[in-house]
Amino acid sequence: MAMAALNILSQPWPPTPSSLSFSNNNISFLTQCNAATATINSKLLSLSHSCHFSVLSSLYGTNRPNSSSKLSSMPTHLSKSGTLTAGTGCSWMQDNSMHHNDAADSECGEGPLHSAFPAKAAEISSIEDLYEFISSGPLMNKLGLAPEAVAESIDKWLAYGLHLCRLFQLKELDLSVPQKVRIYHYYLPVFFWCEDQISQHRSLYKDGEDIPPLVIGFSAPQGCGKTTLVFALDYLFKVTGRKSATISIDDFYLTAENQAKLREAHPGNALLELRGNAGSHDLPFSVETLTALSNLSKEGMKMKLPRYDKSAYNGKGDRADPSTWPEVEGPLTAVLFEGWMLGFKPVPVEVVKAVDPQLETVNKNLEAYYDAWDKFVKAWIVIKIKDPSCVYQWRLQAEIAMREAGNPGMSDDEVKDFVSRYLPAYNAYLPTLYAEGPKGSDPKHLIFVEIDEGRNPILGN
């Protein structure tokens, strides 16, 4: 990816007080932590004299780049090729995309810099405001990110934040509150947590030993933004010079032929009629793929990542042609493994029968999933929702956005039928997942991120 080669620290980024002002309701950690105050003042004074926030007028002269974006071009989900494509209705990325007259033709992260750089140098107080905003995030205490640590690494927060703004074609000097929340309260805190997990993982090995990549599991309901989160994290790993691979449980679905056989073996069971629930995945293929990824620890080692084509057979889907699978090269630092039912584990039969009698077969199938998936995962991020009915609303929003963009999308009735095949599993397995975590997970390597209906993190439990 072209943007991965950018050295963010060599680019000017002079925020102004107006562009980095936040609500007075934000908690001021500067007044609560004297040590953090001293650190941030010293750090910011240094930064204010560095090239990070100086304007290189010779670079742009009087014709600064025009900050432009187009709603229909805003990337929101991964295509078969692994790039983000428009159409899922992620409003946080669209908030400031309607205020510009010019259209950006480039794809996400591939085109020119979409930002304006005012001639006035940044004032320290504006960076202090951003520091306060970052420190007030609901995940900071949960992830062990103390205000002092934020102050010491504020330059990284700013640099990585700008990388994400460019990735999603956002105006970094004119972010809306939802955009600030998504970047500084969600994506970056999770990224720093992942970095810490990787450091702990690598410390277990001696110098000279082959270090397998850390497999980080993301368990999250459909439509909650996990694919975009993983995309952002994968991009940041590449920005920092680390090799990572992304894989989804979707990539392990049965072939169309074997899915038809599953349907024929369970006539009348709507939960196994189409892909999705436990039983509709090729578990030996999962083990083969995850084992190969875990062994990708040396320079020059390569493998292709399987992909699933959901558009095949009129939407029933089939495994994509191997010639289209993306290639990944070692040594890998991390494998980002995501899925809506990752971490689900069987529950007593009476529980599933009370939810939906059709779930009994699914529950039995789930017994084999730990050895096929979960045992490979050494660090877990579980995205928690209060009400599974949010899945329907999120899916409906996505399909409406796709239809309005001129792309094929399900009707409202089709969305209702689609989601209805997943809700029994959510109702049966989410309570145990949220109460106990995935089987075999270590609390030291597990975080729960509770999100609201807007897909943003909240304090939660």
In short:
This protein has 15 helices and eleven strands. A hairpin with an 8-residue loop joins β6 and β7. The relative contact order is 0.13.
Describe this structure in words.
The chain is of the alpha/beta class and 461 residues long. Helix content is 37%, strand content 9%. It is built from 15 helices and eleven strands. Strands 4-9-3-10-11 form a five-stranded parallel β-sheet. A two-stranded antiparallel sheet has the order 1-2. A two-stranded antiparallel sheet has the order 5-8. Helix 6 crosses helix 7. It starts with 33 loop residues before the first helix and ends in an 11-residue tail after the last strand. The N terminus is likely disordered.
Number of helices: 15
Shape: globular
Question: How is the biggest beta sheet arranged?
Answer: 5 strands, parallel
The percent range for strand residues is 5-15%
Radius of gyration: 23 Å
Indicate the structural class.
alpha/beta
Instruction: Tell me the total number of β-strands.
Output: 11
Order of strands across the main sheet: 4-9-3-10-11
Helical proportion, percent range: 25-40%
Separation, N- and C-terminal Cα atoms: 38 Å
Order of helices and strands: HHEEHHHHEHEHHEEEEEHHHEHHHE
Instruction: Please tell me the overall pLDDT.
Output: 79
Unreliable stretches (pLDDT < 50, length at least 5) are: 1-34, 48-89, 97-125
